[in-house]
Design a protein that fits this description.
Radius of gyration: 26 Å
Structural class: alpha+beta
CATH superfamily of the largest domain: TM1622-like
Helix content: 25-40%
CATH architecture of the largest domain: 3-Layer(aba) Sandwich
Number of helices: 9
Number of strands: 17
Distance between the termini: 71 Å
Largest sheet: 9 strands, antiparallel
Shape: elongated
Order of helices and strands: EEHHEEEHHEEHEEEEHEHEEHEEEH
């Protein structure tokens, strides 16, 4: 069977069928490529509820990147940048029943950095939403997969609080799966670890926020490093532990030597050093991992905590 086109050429069915298959496959491939490059934040935005318990979304959302975020939250913008924030979607909900509610969704590009932002402030009451939801003084936050979500009311009220918690559950349900926590957390000894003191970070500004080390970035922290900070309690004694994972052993060794030279100049690299504040500190290497007991109440505690990390497989 032949088909004739307007120019008079004859198109054979045997030629036409493979051609149509190529066109169909090519079109399907384009659709798959477009889907694979879909913006995760925009996909989530399209599914967000327009109203929640009497609060309605204002017509215009705002979207910020890692530069314009300072126009929105000047004081904390650097924190989000330090966790590799890609974009932030901000939406306001208003109602005659109560104060405005503001929903901020941060696309942190990875679940590890979404978890990291979440650990920056862990005050509040635990709520069952997302991964690790917290509620305090009119503000609810949680993380799930690559997103960190912040919802707050401009004034506190019972109705607004219920709407905030309802909105949080709606948003969390739109993120299809949970994301893994940073692998470096598995290297933290579990005995004595204090709840809600674990922080995951990359940059010295974040470390100095939780534990001031030095004006300079003596550990060479940055996007290429993964660090975990945590507090420990053994009986009446306390300690603070820092783990930093580097891409290579040479980088870890350089950071180790600089830390000893700058922070523990009298250290012999084998025994903890007594600091001016009557705390004990020590540092050691384990391959690409730098282990630092920033402070401990006794020499024995510093030594035991270091041994626990070094002995882990």
């Amino acid at each position: 069977m032949n088909m004739r086109c307007s120019e008079g050429f004859t198109i054979h069915k045997k030629i036409l069928e493979p051609f149509l298959m190529i066109v169909l496959i090519g079109g399907f491939s384009c659709m798959m490529i477009q889907k694979s490059y879909a913006d995760p934040l925009q996909t989530l935005r399209a599914a967000l509820p327009k109203q929640i318990q009497g609060w309605r979304a204002e017509p215009d959302d705002r979207v910020f990147d890692d530069e314009t975020i300072f126009d929105y939250i000047d004081g904390a913008g650097e924190v989000y940048r330090a966790y590799n924030m890609r974009k932030c979607l901000s939406r306001r909900y208003t109602s005659p029943k109560g104060p405005p509610i503001v929903l901020d969704i941060f696309d942190m590009q990875s679940s590890e950095d979404a978890f990291g932002v979440f650990t920056h402030d862990q005050d509040g009451e635990l709520v069952d939403v997302g991964q690790g939801g917290l509620y305090r003084s009119g503000w609810l936050s949680f993380w799930k997969d690559r997103f960190f979500v912040s919802i707050y009311m401009e004034e506190e009220s019972v109705a607004a609080e219920n709407a905030v918690k309802g909105l949080a559950k709606e948003v969390a349900s739109l993120v299809s799966h949970e994301g893994p926590k940073p692998k470096i957390l598995s290297l933290l000894p579990q005995e004595g670890l204090q709840p809600r003191t674990t922080r995951y970070l990359h940059h010295s500004i974040l470390l100095n926020y939780h534990f001031y080390l030095a004006d300079e970035n003596i550990l060479n922290l940055g996007p290429h490093t993964k660090a975990a900070l945590a507090d420990y309690k053994y009986g009446e004694e306390n300690a603070r532990l820092l783990l930093v994972q580097y891409p290579a052993g040479e980088e870890a060794a350089k950071a180790h030597m600089r830390f000893l030279k700058t922070y523990l100049p009298e250290a012999d690299a084998k025994r903890p050093v007594l600091l001016e504040n009557a705390k004990w500190s020590s540092a050691a290497l384990k391959g690409k991992l730098l282990v630092i007991v920033l402070e401990a109440d006794s020499q024995g505690l510093a030594e035991n905590l270091m041994k626990e990390v070094i002995s882990l497989d």
